[in-house]
Design a protein that fits this description.
This protein is of the alpha+beta class. It has two domains: 8-53, no CATH class; 57-126, BolA-like (GMP Synthetase, Chain A, domain 3), CATH 3.30.300. It has helices at 36-53, 57-67, 99-107; strands at residues 8-11, 24-27, 72-77, 84-90, 120-126. It is elongated and about 60 Å long.
Length: 132
């Protein structure tokens, strides 16, 4: 459907799992005397709610540390959007385990976050003494 004359269309791509991701909205230009400010306020409010639902590094670290006590965990937000992380875990629990087994051990405490609040996680799993 084409927008009415003088109305701009915008696609929003913020957040995962519904919300305003991919919704299409019509914005009426301010100079036409309409209330485009109302649209902007609604969108800003929705973005703030979605950002509040995102996960932070501390929560990811806490969950993995509980599942793998005594492990050394370094984590970094890869792009600043709080849902794409890179993590290195060094744990004695990884001794004698394959890479797949190690990754499963890290993903297990995060399973309810993956695909929702946590969109991507790049993992490096090492036993103590293994080269990084």
């Amino acid at each position: 459907m084409r927008p009415a004359r003088g109305v701009a269309r915008a696609r929003l791509h913020r957040g995962e799992g519904g919300g305003i991701r991919g919704e299409e909205r019509a914005f009426v230009p301010l100079d036409r005397g309409n209330s485009a400010g109302g649209y902007i306020a609604v969108l800003e409010s929705r973005i703030r709610r979605e950002e509040a639902a995102l996960i932070d590094e501390g929560e990811i670290r806490r969950r993995v540390a509980e599942a793998l006590p005594g492990s050394e965990i370094s984590i970094r937000d890869m792009v600043g959007d709080r849902d794409h992380y890179e993590m290195t875990v060094v744990s004695t629990a990884f001794v004698g385990k394959s890479t797949l087994q190690r990754h499963r051990m890290v993903y297990a405490p995060l399973k309810e976050l993956l695909g929702g609040q946590l969109h991507a996680l790049a993992l490096r799993t090492l036993a103590p003494g293994e080269p990084a």
